Amino acid sequence: MILRLLLLAGCCAAGLAAAPADPAPSARPEDTPAQPADTPDKGTPAAEPEAALPAGRPVADWIEAQVALHRAGFSCGSIDGVRGPQTVAALQAFQRNEGLRATGELDEPTRAKLLVADPVFTPHTFTAAELGRRKPAPETWLEKSQRTELYYATALELVAERYHASPKFIPRLNPDFNWEEILPGAKVQAPAVGPFTTALKAARVHVRLGEHVLEVTDETGRIVLHCPVSIARDVEKRPVGELHVTVVIPDPDYTFDPAVYPESPEAQALGRKLIFPPGPNNPVGLAWIGLDRTGYGIHGTPDPEKVGRTESHGCFRLANWDAVALLAIAWVGLPVVVEP
Question: Are 16 and 283 in contact (CB under 8 A)?
């Protein structure tokens, strides 16, 4: 049985256009079972929980800094070894959390706090099951609805997202690997990061529109989770103020309503709703966290490289790994404060 999420107007997944909305998105009674169904893995890696700040040595470079930040819950977007704006923002958040000057630099006080446990990289071994699930990305709305799942289209996409990495960085890490001919048992190197876990409790979510940043804090104000976020392109669709989480759904499906896409000739020709199955390439990715404002939620995306760099049509969009991290600590009623 599949958890069904009806997402109406006001929310736009990456690469999808949306019109202003009708009713609020919700999990319909007839669509949502009493408990999550047992479904195949949709892309979230299985890994042993990691401590927020594992013991180790000071980071040596920006790749190690990015790995350490991700392990500690400070997502810098895709790991690429480059000191980009999202990495600087994540490092500054870490520095503030540790009582350091928010320089955005790997200075000595920061290195003394930002520790990395070896290994920094880990092998990924391709299995016959995951290689067999790959399919080319659907080109039409109808084709999306005819799939049984919206899994990764390529092995590179699978590895990059699973290990929070840029799809350009993984080939540089594996320069001699043939991505066109992969057999089960083949191995590639990837950043050694897994699902984020923490003993801290989420008390409030802050979405800072001007910074394109989402942060979760505990009751003391300590940052539990930091990540880049895409916000609405139109200023009037940015709901400044306090909202609350109304529903938390892993591996959602997506109801495509052609009325929401008047600019799409295919949508208008269809003239009926379609259901897209779950998966990392679902328009809302691997998680949906609904909010108590018509048409708004926080969700994943099939295009993590665009998060924080392009804008949505209403919803708050995260990389799938960050959406899953937020999903694990979110609860119904959790305050979400949207700040200018």
Answer: yes
Residue pLDDT, tens place only, 114-171: 999 989 999 999 999 999 999 998 989 999 999 999 999 999 999 999 999 999 999 9
Number of domains in the chain: 2
- 113 phi, psi to nearest 5 deg: -100, -35
Question: What does the alpha-carbon distance between residue 297 and residue 11 come to, in Å, rounded to a whole number?
Answer: 7
For residue 279, what is the domain's CATH number? 2.40.440.10
8 A C-beta contact, residue 293 and residue 335 = no
Q: What distance in Å separates the CA atoms of residue 54 and residue 41, rounded to the nearest whole number? A: 27
CA dihedral 82, 282, 198, 101 (to 10 degrees): 30
Cα 64 from chain centroid (whole Å): 21
pTM for this entry = 0.82
Phi-psi region of 174 (alpha: psi -120 to 50; beta: other; left: phi over 0): beta
**Alpha carbon distance 170, 150 (integer Å):** 22
Task: Give the model confidence (pLDDT) of 24-81 as tens digits.
Answer: 333 322 233 233 333 334 444 444 444 444 579 999 999 999 999 999 999 999 999 9
Is residue 255 situated within a structural domain? yes
> Of the candidates 104, 106, 119, which has an alpha carbon nearest to the alpha carbon of residue 50?
119
Q: Residue 217 falls within a domain, yes or no? A: yes
Distances (CA, A) of 330 to 172, 201, 202, 216, 326: 36, 9, 7, 9, 6
Q: 241-250 and 316-317 as β-strands: parallel, antiparallel, unpaired?
A: unpaired
178 in any annotated domain: no
